[in-house]
Design a protein that fits this description.
Length: 232
């Protein structure tokens, strides 16, 4: 195993111990890319576990901050000022603006999660959809009206549940939809190597869209294990 890959994961572990989840995630992704290029599936599979953990911690950190569901009347500049929190962007803002916001938060190393709903904030049903990469969409019931188009600070209002719970549930819903799409396109296999490789690639693409979904990480680990058993 190349020392550089081991060194990268060692630094990722140190960052995780220091609760620097963003740095740890970046290092895990760097190591994952190297393992993928080397087709070192054993190492690739092992890296997925700490990657899943740091992403879980990143999302939990964000959920303890400000939550905003709906962006009617908001400005891109105003939303970009969020320091820690969860932001569910709605029309008239666009998928491109959602991607721009997320990239800005990542570049500035801020714990802010972003989703996009392809509807106005007063819609009865919200269409949560990807705003980069694969096109994935799921429709859910709108949040309570008193939660919409406002910044909510901890403790978040709502009973049962909370605005933060709504955001996390929306993330889970689009992740579930992504996994169901992969299962339809390319079911798990124990015999067809080409199909197994395709399943790995599709799951990787879905994680580029819904990075925090734990079942997607687990499905990818299982698919990679299948490749290893096939001798790839």
């Amino acid at each position: 195993m190349p020392a550089s890959l081991d060194d990268t994961m060692q630094r990722a572990s140190v960052a995780l111990a220091k609760l620097d989840y963003l740095a740890s995630e970046s290092l895990c992704l760097e190591a994952l890319t190297a393992a993928r290029e080397q087709q070192d599936w054993a190492r690739y599979q092992r890296i997925l576990l700490p990657l899943q953990e740091v992403r879980r911690q990143r999302r939990m950190t964000a959920a303890e901050g400000v939550v905003r569901l709906g962006t009617s009347g908001a400005t891109l500049c105003g939303l970009a000022a969020m320091r820690v929190g969860c932001l569910l962007v709605t029309r008239p803002m666009t998928p491109g603006e959602s991607a721009q916001l997320l990239q800005s938060f990542r570049d500035d190393k801020r714990y802010v999660e972003v989703l996009f709903a392809d509807n106005p904030s007063d819609a009865a049903r919200w269409s949560i959809r990807s705003f980069q990469g694969l096109s994935i969409e799921v429709t859910i019931n709108a949040p309570p009206g008193e939660w919409v188009d406002r910044d909510m600070t901890p403790p978040h209002i709502g009973s049962p549940g909370s605005a933060a719970d709504f955001f996390i549930d929306a993330t889970e819903a689009i992740g579930d939809a992504a996994l169901a799409w992969v299962d339809r396109q390319c079911p798990p296999t124990e015999r067809d190597t080409a199909q197994a490789v395709m399943r790995v690639e599709l799951l990787e693409s879905c994680l580029d869209v819904v990075a925090d979904h734990e079942l997607l990480h687990q499905a990818l680990a299982s698919a990679v294990k299948g490749l290893r058993l096939m001798g790839r």
